[in-house]
Specification:
132 residues; alpha+beta; four-stranded mixed sheet; 5 helices; 36% helix; protein-disulfide reductase activity; Thioredoxin-like_sf; DUF393 domain-containing protein; DCC1-like
Length: 132
């Protein structure tokens, strides 16, 4: 059986995001999910993440066909790959169809904390690396 690899870009400065990543990695027994922090300049450039609002929503790319997902759609893709989470796929999908899934995701994402202190302004914590 071929692995259906999902490359997930998460905020490495976010403790909530780091804990979620660790929990998912423990449950990903088939090694189908690869995590990269958007705060790493080489990752940001290599995957051409500029302009994709990756600092606002978790972002992912399905390696098999290059399809990309953001926010709640990435959560669905992760849930499809973790047996314990597959039971939530219909509920997550229904939340998208009913129009509140992405809104709930965005609300939760807006409440997350960012560390290290001093790296953000009142306008947020944008990711912007010089493209040299």
């Amino acid at each position: 059986m071929k692995k259906d690899i999902l490359i997930v870009f998460y905020d490495g400065w976010c403790p909530l995001c780091q804990r979620a990543k660790q929990n998912i990695q423990k449950l990903d027994r088939r090694g189908q999910i690869l995590f990269y922090s958007i705060r790493e300049p080489t990752v940001f450039r290599e995957y051409h993440l500029d302009g994709l609002h990756v600092e606002e929503r978790i972002y992912s790319i399905r390696k098999r066909d290059g399809s990309s997902f953001s926010g709640i759609y990435t959560i669905v893709e992760i849930a499809k790959r973790i047996p314990r989470y597959r039971v939530f796929v219909p509920l997550l999908s229904m939340s998208i169809v009913l129009g509140f899934g992405q809104k709930v995701y965005d609300w939760i994402a807006s409440k997350r904390e960012i560390v290290p202190i001093g790296q953000c302004t009142e306008d947020g914590c944008p990711v912007h690396f010089d493209q040299k």
